[in-house]
Amino acid sequence: MLLRSFVSPLAGMTLLTALAGCASTTPSSSPALHVDVPAVAHPQGESPQWWYRNGAAKAAAQGAMQGKAKNVIVFLGDGMSLTTVAAARIFEGQRKGMPGEENLLSWERFPHTAFSKTYNTDSQTPDSAGTMTAIATGVKSHMGAIGVSAGRKGECTPDGSKDLLSWLTLADSAGLATGVVTTARLTHATPAATYAHVSHRDWENDTDLPPEAAAAGCKDIAQQLLAAARFGRGPTVTLGGGRGEFLPIDVRDPEEDDKVGQRLDGRNLVAEWQQAHPQGAYVTNTQQLKAAADAPQLLGLFEYDHMQFEHDRRKDDQGEPSLAELTRAAIRTLSGNPNGFVLLVEGARIDHANHYGNAYRALDETVAMSDAVQAAVEATSRDDTLIVVTADHSHTLNFVGYPVRGNPILGKVRGQGGEDDTPGDLARDQTGLTFTTLSYANGPGYTGASNRQSAGPKKFLHAPSSVEPAEGRPDLSHVDTEHPDYLQEALVPLKSESHGGEDVGIWAIGPGSDAFRGTLEQNTIYHVIVQAAPKLRARLCAAGTCDANGVPVELPKPGNFEKK
């Protein structure tokens, strides 16, 4: 059985820490395999085939082919910058009554780490669509691309000429169980990149398709989720938000009576899923999810739009499950397949909170994902399950000043404002005003007056359409900067805080995890996964994509993996 008997989180983490400590002192001995990659001019020479082969070569050179993973779980902290991780570990530690700096999030105990270069083919600072496409398919693509190779955002290729094969659909084709868990809409960029193919991430339901795209035969993301069964059985588990994308306009939302579905094509995709899975369970709250423990398939749509932030969600049985609860439910169902499983779990709202300029919710969501990772560690075996934790891109969150050890991570800096200052109480800038440890380079926390809020510190939720220049910095002396709704100051006024372009982290444990080391192109994550999972690489080899050493090096065509 995959599911293990219950061990306490403390005991499980202690064991994991010990194992990680041993592993981290042992040099990797995985045999390296060489794959020739042609030199190209950048960026014009970077074809989809080149990206695929380049990623395969790096993974093979780092020993990924020695992996023997039966199961793979990828945790994607959307927008989870290294600064977000560092601040969240302190945030969690201080919640436990510790100074905080000595704390570690669950995945920070994993034995193998690397950096991921996140740029899109057309952008230094990327978006979630192009980055998750790289992670899911092994090929970097343009900003806004979902499961297709680089081209023009908004172009329509219904012939499938640009479609890329993800490890989720590959696993389905190979007979493994597959699952997608997210706190965003199931049709949002990150989850969609595992099963859909569109050049524009906004095409979530048929009303979002431009008339010319619909006329050309392009399909919206929501209906592609059901069509994914052409590779096998389709995802066994899909849990997240976004009911509105799946329901027609004449059907009222089951929880929000003032809302109706968004589809104009008359299709009720929830009803279609239920018809295709008569033994499966469709759930919309925690109680229903618990009752569906023995269902062979799960579709959970817990919100009309994105799921609630962890801080805001209703936590009783009529509310939404936590990300950890969703993860446990997914693993329980997926583990029923003796061939193994592949699972994506996205902590999506880390990204949204950072876009809102709200560090409290960003850190709280990161801690919630840490709990989910720990739940996966306890529910699986390190011997047969590869767990990878990473982010798609960064954000502009800053961790600054010289606060004293144990200073509240959301508080004002106590200690020194500069290296040469005399340590004291509240640190002050050169105008004599206090400032916080965390701030954003840009975003809605800009303190000038806006059409939504007056000049001074801003509160969640703030999405202004016009802003006036700030006259100096606000006096924070009597402002509770640790309040969940406080928006950290932002230097540049933007309606939504932007992504960052620096590298993000990769943390891994389990078979093949030692291939994650050094600085990697983001698309290499896919290649480590498929090379470290024998059933995935065997399926690729059966389709004729492998070299003489059995390394999958040729770009696979999705059509070759559909059911015959």
From TrEMBL:
Top-level taxon: Bacteria
Gene3D superfamilies associated with the record: Alkaline Phosphatase, subunit A
Residues in the signal sequence: 1-20
Keywords: Phosphoprotein, Signal
Keyword presence, Acyltransferase: no
Listed PROSITE patterns: PROKAR_LIPOPROTEIN (PS51257)
PANTHER family registered for this protein in UniProt: ALKALINE PHOSPHATASE
Family: Belongs to the alkaline phosphatase family.
Protein name: Alkaline phosphatase
Origin species: Pseudoxanthomonas mexicana
Organism phylogeny: Bacteria, Pseudomonadati, Pseudomonadota, Gammaproteobacteria, Lysobacterales
